[in-house]
Amino acid sequence: MAGFNGYDQIISSIVAGQCDDYWGVKVSGANTAAGVWHTTWLDSGFPGAGSAPAATPGTVYNGATNGSINFANQSPSQRYGLSVGATATQSMTLWVVDRLVAVSGLSTASTGSKTVSSSAIAGRYTSGAGVQAWLEVTTATTTTAPVVHLLSYTNQAGSTGQVGAQVTFPAAATKLGDMIQLPLQAGDSGVQAVSTLNVDTASSAGAVNLVLLKPLAAIPLVASQWNERDLVLQLAALPRIFDGANLMLMFQNTGTTAPTINFRIFSAYN
Amino acid sequence: MSLSGVASIDAALRAGQFDDYYAEQTVNTNAGQWCSTWQTASSTQFPAKGVAPSSGGTTYNGATAGALNFNNVSPSKRFLYSFGVGNASGMAGPFCIMIYDRLVGVGSVSVASASGAQTVNTPNLPRYTSGVGVQAWLEFTTVTNGNITLSASYTNQSGSSGQTTPSQVTPTQSQNFCAVQLNIAPGDTGFQSVQSVTVSSTTGTAGVCSVILLKPLVCLAIPGIGATATQPGQIEQNYVLGNLVMPRIFDGANLAFLTNGNSSSNWLGNIRTVWG
After folding, report:
1. Does the pLDDT of residue A239 top 80, yes or no?
2. Touching check for A82 and chain B: CB below 8 Å?
3. Which of residues 46-65 of A touch B (CB under 8 A)?
4. Is the dihedral of CA B255, B222, B239, B133 positive or negative?
5. B4 and A8: CB-CB below 8 Å?
6. DSSP letter at B131?
7. What ipTM was estimated for this complex?
8. Cβ-nearest to A266 among B6, B168, B245
9. Which of A249, A245, A260 is nearest to A73 (CA)?
10. Would you list the DSSP string of A83-150?
11. What pLDDT, on a 0 to 100 scale, did the predictor assign at position B224?
């Protein structure tokens, strides 16, 4: 039977070499303000930088996409994350997420409905349960902080035409790579796909990607101090890393200085 | 007996199938930068310091001077069980210590000027031969006095040569043996070898480094504990029951340390491995 039925089986798998230890580094950019989330997708390091997604219907991500933190497919075995560790030059909260789908070219420089029509999530989390929708700044905004909301999306139950609440960008001038989470309609717990995004208040300039992602692990970091979380006994989370997972890091900086992040993600499969 | 779970590991320990290595190192740090202890001079250092790799290339194994090494145990397998550090005088943290397997290196690579590709040609990897997960680092043996923009030509984990690392800027180092990790091209997951390093520009006039290929194993966090004799610090991580990563230590492994912190300190500690 695939998967792990106990702690000893995890140890046996490690001893048998059924494990992978991904050590990497990301040299990231500066975020707009303390507390603003920031992507590392386009940052150099190990892995190398990813590319901008396509315009609607966007890019569907898998482990073969350049820029991903990826592990070899092991089906019918199942892979699970056992440990996440990192150190960064700035204090932050670091997330490991599975980047599922993204659509580029959404302008915040004019009000109104923006067509997203995101591609279907493929291979994992297809129900949308737990999947979050974020905006990723690709052209810096200016003059006015945009106000946006999900105008039409499909939720985790397959219901279309859902409408999310408004969110205001953290500043009039948000920087490249900043990320803003999009609220969902009350009662919803995930996103299968996004049809349209509405810009309620426009900036003078600005463009974003819409990204669908699934968070897997979170770890707080004090600057220059390694922290590692055991995902088996310490947190008992054992996040599943599906075949084709396209992992990336995103962080919430406590300041505005660009960080360098060294990290490791250890996984095993059976 | 082979290791198949907690009970078998416990049995292996009780049967004496383990080794403890007591190490003592001096941490010379440059705030926010990694530093290698491979050549750090200290009369109390254990293992004793190593030497820079030769310009023609050095392949590292357990017999290399400076290595933290363990006897071969094949056909058994050896794993890292725990790593703990402390200092009776306290340690001025925070910093972290990485244990890595030092695989190959090429010394005397000049990065003092933008003078074209500097030949490196690292030897074949003795372990992790596919190169998957193998990182490339520059270990400075002559400090730089400016910011250096550089890239490297390498062969990736698939054996494809002619790959080029994205251009990156190395910061000025104030002391020897600081280390900088090389970026990797999008899509690649490791280095089989490095062929050359090219400096495209520099704001300084000095800098010599070794190109090291290594495989990280664990990192241990040392929080700021205190620097007085009455505040000893002891941090220990168990890699079976505390943080289940149990990194494999292959026969012939040449273990060494990288540190990252804001202050210099001296630490002594114990590395325990178990085999079965």
Report:
1. yes
2. yes
3. 46-51
4. negative
5. yes
6. -
7. 0.89
8. B245
9. A245
10. EEEEEESS-EEEEEEEEEEEEEEEESSS-EEEE--PPPP-SS-TT-BT-EEEEEEEEEEESS--EEEE
11. 64
